[in-house]
Amino acid sequence: MTSDAGQGRPVIDQTDHRILEALDEHPRASVAYLAESLHLARGTVRTRLTRLTAPDGPLAPVTARLVPASVGRPLRAIVTAEADQATFDGMIDDLTRIPEVVECLGISGRSDMSIEVVAVDADDLYRITQAIMRCRGIRRTETGIVMRELIPRRMGQLTSGK
């Protein structure tokens, strides 16, 4: 792994690509499995994984990728929100306290944020959007229900070079 002088962020090399591609296919692969299947030394794999998963490394923190329906929340929605920037920190604190908020992104355009939420049903979604509206600094929201996941979140294609 090298450092990109322009961004100050680590840039992954071909060996990192190979490790990430193997992890994309086998997310729970052990160091021994990766080393053997990629024909690398265990120490090399361990060192690379340590750098890839470091706080400033290129891999995002690992979290369970639950299917929302498996925890009784089959309804997904994207809530876009306009925000008062003066109360931004408090607003994020408030949004974090809503368990059904699974992701919040700052975006450009007509809205300031894209907030993904999961809900039991339409009534529950209404309750969640009302909780979002009560957060400090939220001016206005618009909600779109996810009808179908057409392309699931993916990253493997970025490391495979395909």
From TrEMBL:
Species lineage: Bacteria, Bacillati, Actinomycetota, Actinomycetes, Mycobacteriales
SUPFAM superfamilies assigned to the protein according to its UniProt record, in alphabetical order: Dimeric alpha+beta barrel, Winged helix' DNA-binding domain
A single BP term in Gene Ontology: response to amino acid
Domain HTH asnC-type as annotated: residue spans: 12-52
Start and end residues of each Transcription regulator AsnC/Lrp ligand binding domain: 81-149
Key words, A-Z: DNA-binding, Transcription, Transcription regulation
An MF annotation (GO) of this entry: sequence-specific DNA binding
Protein name: Regulatory protein AsnC
GO cellular component assignments: cytosol
